[in-house]
Amino acid sequence: MSMGSNDVAEKIKSIAENQNKNIEIIRNGSWGMSWLEPLIEVCVDDERIAYGPVTVDDVEDLFKSGFLRGEKHQLFQGKTEEIPYLKNQQRWTFRKCGLIDPFCLDNYISSDGYTGLSKLLKADQSYGIEQLEKSGLRGRGGAGFPTAIKWKTVADTQADQKYIACNADEGDSGTFSDRILMESDPFTLIEGMTIAGISVGANHGYIYLRSEYPHAYKVLQNAIKSANKANWLGKNIQNSGYDFNIDIHIGGGSYVCGEETAMLESLEGKAGMIRYKPPLPAIEGLFGKPTIVNNVVTLGSVPDILAMGGEAYSEYGMNRSKGTLAFQLSGNVKRGGLVELAFGITLREIIEKYGGGTASGKPVHAVQVGGPLGAYFPDSLLDTPLDYEAFSEKQGMIGHGGIVVFDDSVNMASQARFAMEFCSIESCGKCTPCRIGSTRGVEVIDRITSNVNREKNLHLLNDLCETMIDGSLCAMGGLTPFPVKSALKYFPEDFEATDNMSE
């Protein structure tokens, strides 16, 4: 839409009417091939033929070339399913994104939607948690905590009310998988939340949605309305005796509300500030009641785990990192977009095979994985397999799966300073290491790059980073030092750049 798909669709409609062409235009969601957007798919003999990226100025020429019959054109991409970027993925959670009309419940069901929930309704209530245990699914929001353990804790905790809270406050730079899933396949999230509710005995769920996602809000609202009408939500779901409802809560624009306890505070109408732990949200969460807090991709992975079985999911991945993750390529890269693959592929493979290398044509200089608080990896670490523990060993994190690529035109001292500045702006202010440490961090980096007591300030910056890591209440302050320390370790020459210029 941001690239002009609305105008393209209107142009196609206008020309078709003028030429008396009887066509049906369906607005599907994105396949995640952002570099090909806007993408037009023409159904010819039950196969989709793709053209992209298409602008309004291209439409008339497409008609002249016979694209309605799947004829060749300079924007011709062949069969959609055969485009290498898509064909070579291992789609699980995102398999219906781009395939279906996100506003059509029947379309979702015809693509095996609600199969997982139907199995749960016919089985014992414990079926969902049993399949999650077999799958090895870990939280896709960044922490990588085993999902089954969290669900079982809520299920085993006695309470008169329980909740499901979906964290859709996708604020990490370079991440957009939650957005694509909600906009392209909202019923998968709704089904996943319903499965969670029935599995643990919760009858109400909340989607805490990022305020900058108005289109996702519109799509989710429609999906919730459709699911209620068809009795996949509401009272006595499909005559099963189970009730479950979902409300959408718009976030207040705070990055720190991506942290689960700050999000719960915001849901309760308070300022989004970190809570002390314990108690854990699984025991005392929303309004003091046991609460499952999972992100969009975690909950979106659940329906097919129940539909196909936990063992099928666990066959993907490596070691303790089971299943797939939607890696999101952005930054200085030729082919940006979403790539769902099993854990174990390396950074270099994703950047070169799917991303096509840098957009500038220069060598990859640094890669940040895991959002603005992720470490910067140099070329020497690009062969690290994308696995939670493998990244942790290199003082990095996979986080939400965002991958941002930089060439050597980027000054890494400036990137380190940005991390500290970002933290100082977004800190909730509850703990001193994060609130004050980040502000002092910006000042110290400025002194280093200005050659003011360089050695003393380098030592001070390292001490400050350790204090923030050890003393911060949450990951906001605890992870901010990682991009700083990695920039210092792997790109020390950039911290001398302004000094050389002053000389």
Q: What does it look like?
A:
This protein is of the alpha/beta class. The chain folds into four domains: about 5-85, Glutaredoxin (3-Layer(aba) Sandwich), CATH 3.40.30; about 105-315, NADH-ubiquinone oxidoreductase 51kDa subunit (Rossmann fold); about 315-405, Ubiquitin-like (UB roll), CATH 3.10.20.600; about 410-500, de novo design (two linked rop proteins) (Up-down Bundle), CATH 1.20.1440.230. Helix content is about 40%, strand content about 15%. It is built from 21 helices and 14 strands. It has a five-stranded mixed sheet with strand order 11-10-14-12-13. Strands 6-5-4-7 form a four-stranded parallel sheet, with helices on both faces. Helix 6 runs antiparallel to helix 7 (about 145-155). The relative contact order is 0.10.
